[in-house]
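TA notes, week 10

Several of you asked for a full example with nothing omitted. So below is the full record: structure tokens for the whole chain, then the designed sequence directly under it. When grading your own attempts, check the secondary structure regions first.
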């Protein structure tokens, strides 16, 4: 039995090291690009946190300000500095901070086109396109797929070899459990990464849908008051700092950089990927040459529909919450019923 386990485990780890020996400069460059990209996103998040902390602190004075500083624990300047230093090293060609474990997955994608350009890659790329934009989607998808291809081999081998050792020393039950359940858990954990990506995308869409009524109402108010569409879009985009507003800020920057409105709003549609934002951007591009009268009326109608949909969504969410609360309520009722009936039954038995 031990031999039957050791043979595939050994073959798997040899195959992994063989792929590792085939890693080329192209793979290192893509891995470095992804590392820089993720570091940059983390830097942006940390800066937003620091900005939010600074805004909170500005509302305090004297002893309250000192206490607030202690509670909020300073800023993330050191972390940001370390990440920026790491990015500078990677850009200069220093690859020491690169995680080598996904690299065999890069090799498989490069060697086998069915893997590197298959349905799995397309599905992941579509999700990343929505989360980060088309510019970064291809490399981010390649990195995620490399993890899916490489991590199971490492994880399974890391569990099979200790399992075989335990079996050989006589710990049959523990060894058998590790060799049987371990690979399943590894595959489940790897799949959880993909599921987490899908979950992030769903939450982002829901957040954008919640913010949409406020956005379209602001746009309608500004446009009907005489402001041109580009200016109204920019004012609305910079009035808040959440998912939909940040996507509008990106579109505003593209328009400032002389990107055509059709291209800029088309990219906005692909990043947000909700029917509401698609309808808004399409209406804007179709009415750019018609002036504020027509687009103002459309935005008013859209705002009215958005708030009605928001109310219906809130009702549906409330109904879902009530149905979920029924289970713990029933369990609590059963527990109380048992607490009452058990003593009675015991008294009858006496």
């Amino acid at each position: 039995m031990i031999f039957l386990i050791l043979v595939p485990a050994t073959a798997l780890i040899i195959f992994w090291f063989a792929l590792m020996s085939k890693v080329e400069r192209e793979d290192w460059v893509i891995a470095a690009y992804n590392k820089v990209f993720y570091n940059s996103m983390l830097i942006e998040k940390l800066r937003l946190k620091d900005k939010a902390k600074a805004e909170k602190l500005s509302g305090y004075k004297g002893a309250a300000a000192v206490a607030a500083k202690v509670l909020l624990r300073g800023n993330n300047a050191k972390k940001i500095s370390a990440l920026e230093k790491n990015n500078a090293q990677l850009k200069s060609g220093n690859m020491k901070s690169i995680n080598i474990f996904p690299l065999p997955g890069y090799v498989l994608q490069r060697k086998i086109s069915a893997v590197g350009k298959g349905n799995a890659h397309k599905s992941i790329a579509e999700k990343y396109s929505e989360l980060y934009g088309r510019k970064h989607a291809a490399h981010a998808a390649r990195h995620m797929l490399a993890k899916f291809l490489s991590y199971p081999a490492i994880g399974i081998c890391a569990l099979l070899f200790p399992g075989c050792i335990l079996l050989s020393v006589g710990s049959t039950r523990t060894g058998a459990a590790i060799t049987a359940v371990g690979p399943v858990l590894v595959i489940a954990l790897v799949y959880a990464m993909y599921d987490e990506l899908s979950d992030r995308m769903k939450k982002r869409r829901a957040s954008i849908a919640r913010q949409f009524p406020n956005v379209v109402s602001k746009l309608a108010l500004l446009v009907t008051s005489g402001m041109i569409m580009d200016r109204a879009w920019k004012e609305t985009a910079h009035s808040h700092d959440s998912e939909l507003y940040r996507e509008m800020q990106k579109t505003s920057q593209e328009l400032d950089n002389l990107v055509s409105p059709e291209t800029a709003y088309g990219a906005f549609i692909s990043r947000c990927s909700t029917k509401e934002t698609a309808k808004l951007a399409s209406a804007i591009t179709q009415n750019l040459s018609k002036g504020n009268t027509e687009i103002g009326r459309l935005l008013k109608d859209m705002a009215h529909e958005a708030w009605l949909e928001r109310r219906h969504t809130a009702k549906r969410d409330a109904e879902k919450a009530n149905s979920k609360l029924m289970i713990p309520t029933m369990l609590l009722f059963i527990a109380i019923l048992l607490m009452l009936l058990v003593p009675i039954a015991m008294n009858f038995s006496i």
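Residues 292-349 form the longest helix (58 residues). Use that as a sanity check on your answer.
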